[in-house]
Amino acid sequence: MSAPRVAVVVFPGTWSERDFAHVGGLLGWDVRLVWHTEPSLGAVDAVILPGGFAHGDHLRTGAIARFSPVMSAVTTFAAAGGPVIGSCNGFQVLCEAGLLPGVLLRNDHLEFRCDWQWLRVERAAASEAWLGDLADGELIRLPISHGEGRYYADDATLDALEAQGRVALRYTDAEGRAVGDANPNGSLRAIAGVASERGNVLGLMPHPERAAEAEVGGIDGLRLFRSLERWLAAQPAAAERRL
Amino acid sequence: MALRPGIADPEGLTIADGLRSLGFTTVEEVRHGKLLQVAFEAADAGAARDLVHGMCRRLLANPVMEVATFEVRAAEEQSEERRIS
Fold first, then answer.
1. 3-state SS, residue A207
2. Which residue segment(s) compose the domain that A67 sits in?
3. Chain A residues contacting B, CB < 8 Å?
4. The CATH number of the domain where A156 resides is what?
């Protein structure tokens, strides 16, 4: 299979695009940075919305980014089943854009939290494209870096997400317990990542791109990249997707 | 825009703590929100309300977490005059 062609969307204020591009480069991917005013993504196999502060996060996180021209293309790509991942600010943008349910609110302790965080994989099948190489119940450790990561949705939405197996990741301690102290931001039900109904769109607050080389302290994040590679290789149709 | 009732508001809690520590001991609760002042032209008050409603729905408020309330005020010049006099 040819190298994955991956669009990394860059809004004014995005700050993690080069880290994603760096990791993609290590894997031999064809990574394109796509400026937010672009009306099209070109021919790509996957889309990444990185972390940062798109449009300064003014009004609400992701609220202005949602209306950037590129988001129409991202929405079309997602609707066609294309794999989309939003990390940190990218997760916030996906929620504002309505591609994922819920919203990310100010951390309950009001601090910006930059740390390593344990996570439990709740359901890898929630997003085969991004979590296919991981196993349910497995613990991974990824960096978090956010001030507004408190996942909120009303009870009916949360119940539906749980029932549909779309809660992909939960914050835990090193033993895999989703106890109060292990929740870094007050997210309801310790939710760290959710998937779309079809599973092709995944949003998570942690930064997989910051844990892809042993030199930086961990390689668990690399497994999301590897998941995508394997998923794309198993999808002959994906290579023909042109949007 | 205010957070929906029932959503934890840590900023409001912190402000309430601040008020109590200053001696405003009867403060029971603070809910924090955002105030925007938008200047625009409209044919009449009804048209202005329709416009603001559209602004809230499309951008200014996220119904998942917020409730928006608004009020339309006419004639900035008038209030300027009042201030001068």
1. coil
2. 5-240
3. 59-60, 63-64, 67, 95-96, 101-103, 105-110, 150, 152-154, 186
4. 3.40.50.880
